[in-house]
Amino acid sequence: MAPRECEICQNNRAQILRPKNHARICAPCFTALFEQEVAETIESSNLFQPGERVAIGASGGKDSTVLASVLKTLNERQKWGLDLVLLSIDEGITGYRDHSLEAVKRNAADLDLPLKIVSYQELYGWSMDQVVAQIGKKGNCTYCGVFRRQALDRGAAMLGVGHVVTGHNADDVAETVLMNLLRGDLPRLSRATSIVTSTPSAAKAKSADGKVTMTNVKRSKPMIYAYEKEIVMYAHHKKLDYFSTECIYSPEAFRGSARTLIKNLERIRPESILDVVKSGMDMARLVPQEQGAVPEEVEMTGRCGDAKESGGEMAAMERKLQQDEVAATNGIGVEIQLPRSSKNDRELGSAHAHSRETVALKAANDHPDGQNHDRDQLAPVTLPTRTKMKQKPAGRGAEKRTLPPKQKLGQCEKCGYLSSQAVCKACMLLEGLNKARPHTGIEVG
Amino acid sequence: MAHDPPNNPPISGPPQCARCPLPSLAVLRLHPLCPTHITQYIHTKTIKRLETFRTRYSSPNDPPRRLLLALSFGVSSTSLLQILDLHLAGQRERVGRAGVEVRVLWVRGFNEGEEGKEEGEGQGEGRMQRLRERHPAHEFATLELASVLNLVPGLATSLLPNPDLDASTPTSHRLDALLTSLPSASSRADLKRTLLHRLLLHHASSTHCSALLYGSTTTLLAERTLAEVASGKGFALPQLITDTPATTSEGGVQILHPLRDVLRKEIQIYASLVSPTLTSFLIPEQPVGAKAVVNSRDATIEGLMRGYFEGVEEGFPAVVSNVVRTVGKLQVQPKLEREEKVADCEVCGLDFVQEGEVERSRVCGGCVRMLGHAS
Ligand SMILES: [Zn+2]
Ligand SMILES: [Zn+2]
Ligand SMILES: [Zn+2]
Ligand SMILES: [Zn+2]
After folding, report:
1. Which residues partner with B67 through β-bridges?
2. What is the ipTM of this complex?
3. Of the ranges A302-306, A360-364, B190-194, which one carries the lowest mean pLDDT score?
4. Primary place of residence (chain B) (predicted)?
5. Which residues 164-193 of chain A have a CB within 8 Å of chain B?
6. Which of A185, A268, A360 has the CB atom closest to B186's CB atom?
7. Which residues surround ligand 2, an ion (CB under 5 A)?
């Protein structure tokens, strides 16, 4: 193809074809435009307060490395006056974090930003390696996921920082939108498309003088409109130093499936990624109130594993849905369910599935004739025991989305983290772990 | 048959039907069923979606309500016609009258021309004629897809005015020019489907039909859900996927998908049991594998989703249903912010939220992208 000149400066040779609009531009124009677009996202949604202390969730990977570089640049250029700090979580997985933490350290030095590394060990009393040693490789992803979701907030609270920005990009968000459509999880779909997570996550922190304080931690995604491909290009042209590997533990089938779809969509029509993000934001506005709130920090932050099509999670979901269907076909399904008490809720995994199986067996001779059932009237299939929170829908127009002023959410009685249950998921998991190895609860600070 | 007592089934043979002692033919939603009970199952699932049109809700003096069935000669819509036909015949026998009257509309120029293989004129007409003979109780009509450009006001002006093609140019040429001007195979498929919908709705309303019936199965609706999301039309999912409730369509035309609780593979099994056979009416489907090739220029989002859900339906049918059920939980319209208002898109006709001073704001974001005018 004949060399073309940059559509913007009309001077340099075009090196880059932008996936989202097919513009052919040169590298300097690209990096300038990339930064400008992140700045627009930030300014149009009033993400930051002047002088605000902001922690950048830094994993050493490309997304957070680019985010840190762009924010550092913009903070100076746009005179936002932010007090930026890099915050890294050390899960304690030998051979996984070591190298990426080195990358974060080099970044901190290059960008001249302070770096705080908080370990699972410090936050939870357990490193992931220890968790794996205790429970084996199977199922440890649950731990990694639950711990990780809270780790940035807890770490921020430890630092006394009220705002954490993460490197989620358009591809991540698009993937999460499709994934949650497949899983039928509208609250998470809403949450994934919010630039600012509408539910502030609270975390209890002990300051240096031993005082315990509650910090509301706000989360935001300044790169929600940035293509993964462009992030890689930005890192390349800015010669940023990042570490590329993904968590070595188990994959999530739905995410893997959604990711494959997103990659294929991008090949057919690159604009689709932003269209999925836009669709997700619009759909968030259609989620009815009672479906709109996600009381806990349950959004998938960071991903666990480059998902292979293992199908395990999908198969489990399929079984559950089929059982629900059978239960719904028979009026009896509803009555046989276990009485709801908080004790049972905590064991919903096994107990619930068990009761459903009973139903399925009893119903095996029943004909699916659709005479007396209307599944659509029944409770949503996802996590039936989650308490519904009455509050504003998470999804409003993304640009105008700000934190609702006051919210009454439950807090974990052990650690103070926002939770719909008396004890948050992390504390529940820790309880189990600590039973086997006598240990204290979460000792924050 | 008689010397093959059902209470002594062959050990390696198919399991017994869950409803009767006959051997089962297939397993539907965990239940092995015999041909009779498969047919009954599909009929029940389908007719249940048409509850509002039951005879008991109308008085014998009312004229029967009209339903417009969109026929594509695919397995689903052809089977839907079969189901309705049998149901109404049964009703006439039992109650002496049918509460509804079915009109069948086939739109020429929609599903032909894929892969450049135009189905011969005569072939389509031939199918139509044979189907009319098979179902003499119903009225059949044929329209040209391109005619929508003249029929639906606003379309011609919002879709591209190529100065060389004025109103005197035949609509089929205008449509061809329009399709060629689009940026991708996906856009072309989207526009054709959009125009088809508008034509069907227009026809339904001008012929005083109470409802427009599509043959969309659960699987197709799930595919369309993800395809629409990928085309920026997430805002319109309830309008596109969910059945119109009877109450909100006063005077208007309800849009219904009576096969929405039936999987594609289930309707295929059903169709294979219909006698006399439906095969000679059906337009043969292209193998999905060819459609799903992602790297080809002709790859479409629709085709990608078709291939994807074929796999999901095979292993995880309940996940397919769950996608459609999830869309059913969405509200039709969002709460509006102060400066927003709802308008109907001049191209697709769907309600969308006008966001401030967008150029061409009479057209929704999804259609702007489809037409490739995004800057
Ligand atoms: Zn340039
Ligand atoms: Zn807790
Ligand atoms: Zn039977
Ligand atoms: Zn439109």
Report:
1. B102, B211
2. 0.91
3. A360-364
4. cytoplasm
5. 177-178, 181-186
6. A268
7. A 412, 414-415, 417, 424, 427
Gap between the Cα atoms of B26 and B174, Å rounded:
48
Q: What is the pLDDT of residues A297-323, one digit of tens each?
A: 443 333 443 333 345 778 888 888 888
Residue B279 near chain A (CB below 8 Å): no
Residues A284 and A424 in one domain: no
Strands A163-165 and A212-220, bridge-based pairing: parallel
Chain CA centroid to CA B6, Å = 40
| A318: in domain | yes
Q: From the list A275, A286, A314, which residue is nearest B232 (CB)?
A: A275
Note whether residue A434 is domain-resident.
yes
Count of structural domains, chain A: 2
Q: Which residue has the higher pLDDT, A190 or A204?
A: A190
Rounded to the nearest whole angstrom, what is the distance from the C-alpha of residue A339 to the centroid of ligand 4?
48
- Are A266 and A213 part of one and the same domain? yes
**Residue A178: closest C-alpha in chain B:** B226
The better pLDDT of the pair A443, A216 is held by A216
CB-based contact A288 B330, cutoff 8 Å: yes
Least CB–CB distance from B229: residue in A276, A366, A376: A276
pLDDT level of residue B354 (50, 70, 90 thresholds): confident
| pLDDT surpassing 70 at residue A198 | no
| CA–CA dist A219, A164 (Å, integer) | 5
DSSP 3-state percent helix, strand, coil across chain B (nearest 5): 45, 10, 40
In a mutagenesis test of the A interface, which of B326, B336, B364, B375 is the best target, namely the one with the most A β-carbons within 10 Å? B326
pTM for the whole structure: 0.83
A77 and A157 within one domain: yes
Domain span holding position A372: 312-394+407-439
- Give chain B positions within 8 Å (CB) of A401: none
Residues A362 and A332 in one domain: yes
**A158 alpha carbon – ligand 2 mean position (Å):** 15
Q: Å from A35 to nearest chain B CA?
A: 19
pLDDT number for residue A315: 83
- Using the Cβ of A289 and the Cβ atoms of chain B, whether some distance falls under 8 Å is answered with no
Domains, chain B, ranges and CATH? Answer: 49-54+63-336 (3.40.50.620)
CA distance B284 to chain A (A): 25
Based on the domain organization, do A281 and A251 belong to the same domain?
Answer: yes
Are B222 and B308 in contact by the 8 Å Cβ rule? The answer is: no
Q: B256 vs chain A: nearest CA distance in angstroms?
A: 16
pLDDT tens sequence across A157-186 = 888 898 999 999 999 999 999 999 999 999
Dist. CA A154–CA A156, nearest whole Å = 5
DSSP symbols for B265-299 = HHHHHHHHH-SS-SGGGSPPPPPHHHHT-SSSTT-
One domain, residues A297 and A318: no
- The closest of B333, B324, B119 to B222, measured between CA atoms, is B324
Confidence of residue B75 (pLDDT cuts 50, 70, 90): very high
Q: Which of A295-304, B199-208, B223-232, B274-283 has the lowest mean pLDDT?
A: A295-304
User: Is B140's Cβ below 8 Å from some Cβ in A?
Assistant: no
Inter-chain touch A287–B330, beta carbons under 8 Å: yes
| Centre of ligand 1 from the C-alpha of residue A303, in Å | 35
A260 and A329 share one domain: no
Is it true that the peptide bond before B276 is cis, omega within 30 degrees of 0? Answer: yes
pLDDT band of B265, cuts 50, 70, 90: very high
Which of A275, A306, A337 is at the close of a domain? A306
As a whole number of angstroms, the distance between CA A134 and CA A119 comes to 18
Contacts of A261 in chain B (CB under 8 A): 226, 304, 308
CA distance linking residue B83 with residue B46, whole number of Å: 8
Out of A256, A286, A306, pick the residue that ends a domain: A306
Residues of chain B neighbouring A44 (CB-CB closer than 8 A):
none
Q: What is the pLDDT of residue A302?
A: 38
